[in-house]
């Protein structure tokens, strides 16, 4: 509990909580609104999801630079104020019934969001001692899990009770509260500006791009690392499909009139599955090779996703989703724990800088394909599940043939590098 005696940390923690709440509620409410308003055009809901992931492709190379070079407190606070302003404009766009304007504002708000969490996380690092980093990371993971489990449900409840306009008001209040909490923090200048004060004119786009180029060259030269980073690309593909397919399934197959509530059951099932799988993997990770925690669960996931397309029984669907989450948990832990062991500390930041854009690119590509295919070309949701299962199965074969061999080569090179 000592970490909660740090007032700055408490304020930043609740700022992140309210900021995440505003983002989650708005995203889910808009998805439900578009499915209700444009039932015969499900591609609108898919495009809305695309507006949340696509901005990463445009800002990923500058996000880390802004968090490291500018006043982190001002960056985080201003992100909240800007998002509050954009949310206010969203309110007006809905009254104008301008869906293109709504999509543009959602895109803009998501782009600003990409700058918030790197700056906020960097502030947390600056106000805690090293012994508290693990506690803070655990609390942030718990926060993510809570929204994974309850986010869709909260969005559904607010949308069903106060409508899309009420949900936007909740968004607006959330961002304002987050901004005020950050403003009230008294954070030393060394934590806010660790690299000294810098102006926009001092930022070189060429230097930022060179750093990212160095990262991808390093990844490509290390075959095992390249395979693991490719795994994050696949996570983006799966998360993109799961961002919209469950809502389509509930809307057009299981419960057209109450699909919001059933969509929240999907999130709860997947969230508890992730927690269960992560707990199991934490216990057994020291006893098995990392690739065992990757290859087997990926194979099971492909089979289970195929089953999602076959079943027309809701409870079977939800149990299958829970087991899928249990499979994904160990994969996350295995890859996340493996990478720091094979990446040089000096290059970890540049390697990590490629993960989010690759995931978001895969997610955006998946959402774009779904928007294009369904329902104009593929009018049955089941085929989308079958396609996703086939892609995951191909990844299983790729990993089954490469990871054990590459892991053995790395282990042997480490043995040879040890002093005799």
Automatic annotation (TrEMBL):
It comes from the Bacteria. It is a multi-pass membrane protein. PROSITE patterns: MFS. Residues 8-407 form the Major facilitator superfamily (MFS) profile domain. Keywords: Cell membrane, Membrane, Transmembrane, Transmembrane helix, Transport. The chain crosses the membrane at residues 12-35, 47-66, 86-108, 139-158, 164-182, 224-249, 261-284, 291-309, 315-338, 358-377, 383-401. It is found in: Cell membrane. Its main location: membrane. This is MFS transporter. It comes from Metabacillus herbersteinensis.
């Amino acid at each position: 509990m000592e970490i909660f005696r740090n007032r700055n940390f408490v304020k930043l923690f609740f700022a992140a909580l309210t900021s995440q709440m505003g983002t989650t509620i708005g995203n889910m409410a808009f998805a439900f609104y578009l499915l209700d308003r444009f039932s015969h055009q499900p591609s609108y809901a898919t495009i809305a999801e695309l507006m949340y992931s696509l901005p990463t492709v445009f800002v990923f190379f500058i996000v880390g630079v802004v968090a490291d070079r500018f006043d982190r407190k001002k960056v985080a606070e201003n992100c909240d104020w800007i998002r509050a302003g954009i949310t206010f404009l969203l309110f007006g766009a809905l009254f104008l019934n301008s869906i293109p304007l709504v999509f543009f504002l959602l895109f803009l708000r998501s782009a600003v969001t990409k700058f918030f969490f790197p700056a906020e996380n960097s502030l947390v690092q600056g106000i805690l001692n090293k012994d508290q980093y693990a506690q803070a990371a655990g609390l942030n993971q718990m926060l993510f899990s809570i929204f994974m489990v309850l986010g869709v449900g909260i969005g559904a409840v607010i949308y069903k009770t106060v409508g899309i306009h009420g949900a936007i008001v909740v968004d607006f209040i959330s961002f304002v509260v987050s901004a005020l909490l950050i403003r009230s923090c008294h954070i030393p200048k060394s934590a806010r500006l660790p690299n000294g004060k810098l102006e926009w004119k001092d930022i070189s786009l060429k230097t930022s791009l060179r750093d990212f180029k160095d990262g991808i060259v390093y990844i490509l030269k290390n075959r095992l690392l390249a395979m693991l980073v490719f795994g994050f690309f696949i996570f983006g593909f799966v998360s993109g499909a799961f961002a919209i397919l469950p809502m389509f399934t509930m809307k057009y197959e299981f419960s057209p009139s109450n699909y919001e509530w059933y969509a929240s059951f999907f999130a709860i099932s997947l969230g508890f599955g992730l927690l269960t799988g992560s707990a199991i993997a934490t216990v057994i990770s020291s006893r098995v090779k990392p690739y065992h925690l990757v290859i087997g669960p990926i194979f099971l996931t492909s089979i289970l996703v195929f089953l999602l397309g076959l079943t027309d029984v809701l409870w079977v669907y939800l149990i299958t989703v829970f087991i899928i989450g249990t499979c994904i948990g160990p994969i996350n832990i295995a890859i996340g724990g493996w990478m720091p062991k094979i990446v040089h500390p000096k290059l970890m930041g540049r390697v990590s800088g490629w993960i989010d854009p690759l995931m978001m690119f895969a997610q955006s590509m998946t959402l774009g394909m779904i928007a294009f295919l369904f329902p104009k070309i593929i009018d049955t949701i089941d085929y989308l599940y079958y396609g996703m299962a086939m892609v995951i199965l191909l990844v299983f074969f790729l990993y089954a043939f490469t990871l054990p061999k590459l892991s053995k080569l790395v282990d042997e090179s480490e043995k040879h590098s040890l002093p005799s």
